[in-house]
Amino acid sequence: MTIPWSSLFGGMLLGVSATLLLLLNGKIAGISGVLTGLMTPKKRDYAWRWLFVIGMVSGSLVGVYFLGAEVPKEYQTSISMLIVAGLLVGIGTRLGNGCTSGHGICGIGRLSVRSMVATVVFMFVAAITVFVRLHVLY
Question: Cα–Cα distance between 100 and 86 in angstroms, integer?
């Protein structure tokens, strides 16, 4: 069995960064909440959100261009299916009052029962989606 070191290291970085944001700023590192705050900015709360998003984008660029992270060049689905999937994720994020990063990383870390339930629901729906996509649609 090989250990996926980059995945382990990435998970540790996510945990440490979410913890530091909560301890130092009192903010939750849920991506949907960060982006929602950018669309409805509050004067005191606006700058850290931009820095968060800029850090995510620049971190991705560093990973691809300097660390050799691979990005898919081709997709096995249509652009319209990708758009529908993105819209469904957005609707689910709104309905679930947060996303997987907010509930799964930050919420479970804070022992939030609501986040634990939400994460179980996310995972269950993801399993059903994969089953339908692989065994029903094709």
Answer: 14
**What is the CA angle 38-43-46, rounded to 5?**
35
47: number of CA atoms within 13 Å, CB side? 3
> Could you tell me the pTM of the whole model?
0.74
At 39, phi and psi to the nearest 5?
-80, -25
Contact yes or no for 119/104 (Cβ under 8 A): yes
Give the whole-angstrom CA distance, residue 78 versus residue 6. Answer: 30
pLDDT, tens digit, for every residue of 51-60?
Answer: 999 999 999 8
Helices (H), 43-112: 47-65, 79-95, 100, 108-109
Give the count of beta carbons closer than 10 Å to the beta carbon of residue 20: 11
